[in-house]
Amino acid sequence: MNWFQNWMLPKAAATHAGDVDGLYMFIVYLTIFFFFFNGALILYAVRKWRRRSAKEVTPHITHNTKMELIWSIIPLFVVMGIFFWGFKGYVKAWVPPNDSMEIVVTAKKWVWQFEYPDGTRTLNDLHVPLNKPVKLVMHSEDVIHSFFVPSFRLKRDVIPGRYTELWFTPTEPGVQQVFCAEYCGKGHSDMMARIFVDTPEQYETFLREGDEQVRKMPLKDLGKLVYENKGCATCHSLDGTRGQGPSWKGIWGETGKGADGKPYTVDANYIRQSVLQPQAVVVQGFEPIMPTFQGLLREREILGVIEFIKSVK
Ligand code: CUA
């Protein structure tokens, strides 16, 4: 019946996911069993005690002690078993081991930001070493979001003004998908992140230089990647459509006026400033809602964004 589980659930990729799946599948099979068992009993009773003539009168039935005891005591043991099984898994899933690595997660409309113990920060991409326990300390800068990793069988709300925690030990190398599972506004369905489960060497290299892709890519392609992965796409369109922020289509070299009337020209310095201090010049007609990317983009990534904007015509 493994195909059945694989069809219903994504492949488990963290240590305690097996516990969750075991209990979950047990309940599913138990439900399927009782669906057919109860159905069969009903059919049997309908056939056996059906009214055979119009004169037949149902006798007065009060109760049946033996049957009532059976259908109370057996389910009691079954549900108590489920409770203790679930409680054990719950405690294991919520209490992180003492040696876990701590990563701070900040959620804001509509990006996930990760901060590592050495101060490295990334947006929407979380790198973790394989087989090492990781604890996420999460908070939100605006509304309630929810950090959901289906393949880890983990989900927890991320709340403004409070820290919530989540921990896991990844057991499968590769990429895992993260979703925001609490409706948080227009960009909610785009608020996704990826967890890269690295070997220890890959993880070290990542902390030092950023991922491989970033180091070797041509600037324009790197800029496109930043646009797609770091949340720019949530607000800035490439086809001239008006979003939460101005479209990037054909803006290179354009001149205009900021909300305070100051003129600006879209050149390399303007783009750099808009990325690092987005409130310095807010284009007229737009809200000052862009978060700063200070410390979140490497120098080469900012150059990439500039090259990419030049290419959007
Ligand atoms: Cu953040 Cu939905």
In brief:
The protein has helices spanning 2-8, 17-48, 65-94, 200-209, 212-216, 219-229, 232-235, 268-276, 299-311, and strands spanning 101-108, 111-115, 121-123, 125-129, 134-140, 145-149, 154-158, 164-168, 174-180, 192-198, 255-257, 263-265. The chain has 313 residues and is of the alpha+beta class.
Mean pLDDT: 89
Spatial arrangement of strands, main beta sheet: 3-2-1-5-8
Low-confidence stretches: none
Strand percentage lies at 15-25%
What is the rounded Rg? 28 Å
Give the SSE order as H and E letters: HHHEEEEEEEEEEHHHHEEHH
Bound molecules: dinuclear copper ion
What class would the helix/strand composition place it in? alpha+beta
Count of beta strands: 12
> Total helix count?
9
What does this protein structure show overall?
It is a single chain. The protein has 313 residues and is an alpha+beta fold. It contains nine helices and twelve strands. The chain has helices at 2-8, 17-48, 65-94, 200-209, 212-216, 219-229, 232-235, 268-276, 299-311; strands at 101-108, 111-115, 121-123, 125-129, 134-140, 145-149, 154-158, 164-168, 174-180, 192-198, 255-257, 263-265. The strands form three sheets. It has a five-stranded mixed beta sheet with strand order 3-2-1-5-8, with no helix packed on it. A five-stranded mixed beta sheet has the order 4-10-9-6-7. The radius of gyration is 28 Å and the shape is elongated. Dinuclear copper ion binds at residues 107, 110, 145, 180, 182-184, 188, 191.
